[in-house]
Amino acid sequence: MTSDCIFCKIAAGEIPATIRYEDQEIIVFDDRQPQAPHHLLIIPRKHIRTTLDLTTADNDLIGHIYQIAGKLANDLGFADDGFRLVNNCNEAGGQVVWHLHFHLLGGRDLGWPPG
Ligand code: AMP
Ligand code: ZN
Question: pTM for the whole thing?
Answer without folding.
Answer: 0.98
